[in-house]
Structures are given as C-alpha cells and as structure tokens.
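Friendly challenge for the regulars: who can give me the structure tokens for this chain first? No prize, just bragging rights.
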Amino acid sequence: MNQMQTQDHDVVELISLPTQLVMRNAPEVRRAIKERIAAGRHLLILDLEPVEFVDSSGLSVLVSTLKALRPVSGEVVLLSPSDDVRALIELTRLHKVFEIYEDRESAIADMRQRAEVA
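First reply, four minutes later:
Bragging rights claimed.
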C-alpha cells in the first residue's frame, strides 16, 4: 500500500487515500483516519484522486469516517474520484450520503466556510 498523506489547511484536513482501498489495508486506513479525528481534526476531505480500486471494505472506510465524525459534529466530503470509483459510489448510492467535489480548492473553501458558520 502506498501511504496516506495528509495536508493541513487551517481547520480542514485533506487526506489523500492510497491507490487501493481494499480489505488488505482498510483496517489500517480506518485506524489512521480515526486517529486524525481523535486529534481534533473534524473537517475532512478524503482525496480519492489517487485511488484506482475500491472494494466493499474500502467503501466501509468512507462510511465509518462519516459515522465517527457525527458525534463530534464533524463533516467529511469526497474529492476527485476516478470514473470507476465514482461508478461504485453511485452504484451503492453513497453519492446521496457524501458530497463529492471535483475541484480541490472549492472543497477546501467550502469546508472552511462551514467551520466559520459552526
């Protein structure tokens, strides 16, 4: 697995996910994201641009992130899924649950604005 990378944008954290988000690495990715939430990072952008393949375990990482953020009034959005990853997100109707951005700067700006309102 290539490593997750994080970028701090004030109150927003952008997390670039690995090229494969599958059963083999899902527990590690889930743990790393939950550590960021426990550290007080409650506005997350999950960058799916590097992700080439996702299985059901990988989708569960997205859902568990959302569930972990709810008790702390946090939010998560998705960024730049490939056509194949987007098709899976739509097939599972997760596009009804997650906002999906194609533009990094728009995602960051919108999440910063949410922080100001909160």
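The CA atoms of residues 21 and 58 lie 5 Å apart. The chain has a mean pLDDT of 96. Your move, everyone else.
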